[in-house]
Amino acid sequence: MESPRQVAGVILAAGKGTRMKSDLPKGLHPILGVPMLELIGRAMKGAGVARPIVVIGHGGEAVQQALGTGYEYVWQREQLGTGHAASMAAGILDGFDGEVLVVPGDAPLIESETLQALLQHHRREAAACTMAIAELTDPTGYGRIIRNSAGVACRVVEEKDADPDQKRIREVCTSFYCFDADAFLGALPKLKNTNAQGEYYLTDVPEILTETGKKVETWTVRDDSLLMGVNDRYQLAEAGRILQTRIVRRHALNGVSFTGVNAVTIGPDVTIGVDTIIGPGTVLLGSTAIGARCRIGPNAQIEDSHIGDGVVVLMSLVTEAEIGNEVRCGPFANLRPKSRIGAGSKIGNFVEVKNSTLAPLVSASHLSYIGDASVGSHTNVGAGTITCNYDGFSKNRTEIGENVFVGSNSTLVAPLTIGDGALIAAGSVITQSVPADAGAFGRARQETKEQWAAQWRRIKRSGDR
Ligand code: UD1
Ligand code: MG
């Protein structure tokens, strides 16, 4: 069997996106934490595009920086139209012999499967150009598909160039195309800008190809949400809603329960194990991976973190952290970057952990700050324990061993080492390391005076003499 030809992909992303009313380039506006252009680029790569090319213009440097090295970039310094943008990409495709998928940079809901289907239709029909088209009840604003007497889609008329009859056509151009490279490269130099907008329209390419006897095909997309364009922040929010529904559906069908479907935010890369229950108000973003049988939320926000099986995270913030199996976390815990919580540990209310490793079965149940520390297994960190990790100049470490009992309201002034089995008396300020199995008392000695309180009250009541 003949091996399939190489596919190049062109994302048209040089436009300004004026209606976003933003300093951020349009394509970098995130949906569920992922920039629109990244979503489109992934769909392309997922469809087997070997050479993804991004046409950049407005905010081009920022786009390049955000998307990184997985793409080729070409500049369109002046935005002279979609056809002009496509010819910028053609500049680096000279001699390329394969297919070229062209997609707009503002349709973030496109999926690999749709692009693949477009490509397959194109191959099956041996066409020079296949336009993905949609049939809309309200086609206003879109380019209309004009068919000849034989029913062949021979050209596209833009809204601004259309006469009233043409405006009634409901078949529209979606701006997703598949071309044969030689047809694409041959037709682009022939584009003219003699139209209402004075632009070079990519939509004129099908007509040029038809005139030179090349085959132009259409492929109708059934779910037009896939092609939804984002031109303003309302459409951005709407696209987020649609993508969110897809993501929740995927997890739900894989065995995840949602107790508040409409009140969760879950990014496209998040993974969730079976029998996990996600409560309302929960935000899961980035590369977060959640294990099986967890209870997450209500109101948990977890970003770029790894959560084991059987974990409870209630009303807490977890960022770039690792949580072992069967951990209980929250309510109101704050696990900051590089927190590693061992299996079976308990992180209670108002406990903040940063850059610290807790072994399995550590208990820090109330009101603590654990920063730049390590804590051995079975150690109890009493309520109100603070690691004083910062001296105003540098961060210092606190190393706490196994089976240590840190009494409530202890202040551990780093750098400090507390040996295995040691006991820190409640209310201590500990400034020197404590050996294994020692008891450390760093507090003022208590003085108790018999009858003192009664006497004091008597004096007060009799008029302070
Ligand atoms: C385009 C199509 C229209 C189609 C619609 C579907 C043309 C002439 N018209 O219109 O038939 O129905 O998409 O959404 O193609 N861009 C550049 N450089 C430019 C101009 C645009 O890179 O000089 C990029 C934009 O950033 C955008 C994409 O091309 O991502 C589409 O451009 P846009 O201006 O949105 O075209 P529409 O008017 O929507
Ligand atoms: Mg558009």
The CATH homologous superfamily name of the largest domain equals Spore Coat Polysaccharide Biosynthesis Protein SpsA, Chain A
Low-confidence stretches: none
The tally of domains stands at 2
How many DSSP-defined strands?
39
The ligands found in this model are: uridine-diphosphate-N-acetylglucosamine, magnesium ion
CATH architecture of the largest domain: Alpha-Beta Complex
Question: Overview of this structure, please?
Answer:
The protein has 465 residues and is of the alpha/beta class. It has two domains: 6-227, Spore Coat Polysaccharide Biosynthesis Protein SpsA, Chain A (Alpha-Beta Complex); 256-440, Hexapeptide repeat proteins (UDP N-Acetylglucosamine Acyltransferase, domain 1), CATH 2.160.10.10. It is 19% helix and 30% strand. It is built from nine helices and 39 strands. The strands form six sheets. The protein has a 16-stranded parallel sheet that branches. Strands 14-17-20-23-26-28-30-33-36 form a nine-stranded parallel sheet, with no helix packed on it. The longest helix has 21 residues, at 233-253. The model has no long low-confidence stretch (mean pLDDT 96). Uridine-diphosphate-N-acetylglucosamine binds next to strand 1, helix 3 and strand 10.
